[in-house]
Amino acid sequence: MPVPLAPYPTPPAPYAPAPAPPTAAANGAQSQLVCSGCRNLLLYPVGATSVCCAVCNAVTAVPPPGTSTEMAQLVCGGCHTLLMYIRGATSVQCSCCHTVNLALEGKELENLLLFNHSTNQVAHVNCGSCRMLLMYQYGARSVKCAVCSFVTPVGVSTSSTQQKFSA
């Protein structure tokens, strides 16, 4: 069946601006921060101004937009606990064993690894308490045993490296 034609052209649709793209909050996006009370990682919806921790009930203020809160992780050198910290920090203290860990990223870490690999300047000494053989960076004044936590002083003389052969 033929379709009747309108005698006049249809008027154009009124101008309507394109809808704005959905915001991060509308998408259900989340961000994260560390609880100011118990140091647990908290997830919260983007746009929130504060977050109440379900574990300790502490209320932590959300930093203003533009503040870098991107998180990074490292393994504690003392107790091997996974630590989270705000990217850009230079050191992170473990809340379990209180070891201060260097937080190196990118070029800093690459340079350190290249330096250690290319120089290979390490020495050995037996722990002053449990006699475990320890390896340390040449030039260090002392080395802490990972087994018994005893701190063994290290001299620059060759007697400390000869010690490994006498035991």
From TrEMBL:
Protein name (Swiss-Prot/TrEMBL): Zinc finger LSD1-type domain-containing protein
Pfam families associated with the record: zf-LSD1 (PF06943)
Cellular component terms per the entry's GO annotation: nucleus
Native organism taxonomy: Eukaryota, Viridiplantae, Streptophyta, Embryophyta, Tracheophyta
Alphabetical UniProt keywords: Nucleus
Superkingdom per UniProt: Eukaryota
Keyword Cytoplasm included in the entry's annotation: no
First and last residue of the signal peptide: none
NCBIfam families: LSD1
Main location: nucleus
Record's subcellular location: Nucleus
Zinc finger LSD1-type domain segment(s): 35-59, 76-100, 127-151
